[in-house]
Sequence to fold (305 residues):
Amino acid sequence: MLTRSALIYLSRKEGLKDFAARFSLFKKLTTRFIAGESIDEAVAAIREVNAHGCSASFDHLNESVGSTAETEAEVREYLDVLRRIDETGINSNVSIKLTQFGLEIDPELAYRNARRVVEDAARRGNFVRVDMEGSNVTQATIDVFKRLRAEFGLNDVGIVLQSYLYRTMDDARDLLKIPARIRLCKGAYNEPPEVAYPNKKDVDDNYIRVMKLLLSSGIYHGIATHDPRMIDATLEFAKREEVSKGAFEFQMLYGIRRDLQEQLARDGYGMRVYVPYGKHWYPYFMRRLAERPANIWFVLKNLWK
Ligand SMILES: Cc1cc2nc3c(=O)[nH]c(=O)nc-3n(C[C@H](O)[C@H](O)[C@H](O)COP(=O)(O)OP(=O)(O)OC[C@H]3O[C@@H](n4cnc5c(N)ncnc54)[C@H](O)[C@@H]3O)c2cc1C
Fold:
């Protein structure tokens, strides 16, 4: 039986992608979670998402980029995406990863690259979300984000926090002082018990504590989860504390719990769907399998059909 950590380990082995991509079935399964390889395919997916009452966030898949030239290509891709959002009139912002912009090469490079994208988004009245990655780059990500936030407005750039990290409540309090718009998620990487809660129950309890802090702040945040328990806790807290439906949004991933996405949108809540696309889909896809190993059975079952 493949465990979550084994799948996350495999997610870092890019070479396996070429092997996996040879199986058309594998490819078919990826289309459930990934909107395609080109901007055009992502735009088409977002039109569909918008038609169901949900907004979106573009994510050009790529991480741990190893050369300055490749980071430049990533910046250009995002500038293109922002232009296409305006041209097509779709309802979407963008999500970026700082390792995609060179964080592991030089934090200054990542800052300069991210700054170009945030500046363009701000000029267009759009918004950039800085995703959170592994704990080896948590502090560096927050540092770059704070520099961006010092230069740009609350509604130009936001960040992500992960409830599995022990440090997250302190980070949330600190970032709210700036203030900053935060997306709260559980966290998708393999983290050691020195930095992250090993038990799901503790991750969930921390999620609810941080969610309450965020919803009480008067700032517009994103509650990113597919977990009905987290969603119910959020709805209940918002009702009890009279936090209006328009004061925050839910966020989910493309292809996961579409029924719940559409239900919340119908109920009048903001619902944003994170739409990943691009050629480097392999690590993202493997992290999704790791969250729900049952999806592997879906692959295997279909292999024998
Ligand atoms: C919009 C958005 C942005 C995110 N950004 C980041 C980020 O920047 N950094 C980061 O580390 N993580 C990010 N994540 C991922 C997140 O950290 C979790 O790994 C992921 O959302 C699974 O956690 P969960 O809250 O859905 O709860 P879980 O406890 O994992 O799942 C609860 C239920 O949701 C359903 N479900 C969850 N995952 C799947 C799946 N893959 N396939 C089918 N059903 C599933 C199942 O019914 C499951 O029982 C993001 C998630 C979302 C929704």
User: Anything to note?
Assistant: The chain has a mean pLDDT of 92. The CA atoms of residues 142 and 159 lie 8 Å apart. The first strand starts at residue 55 and ends at 60.
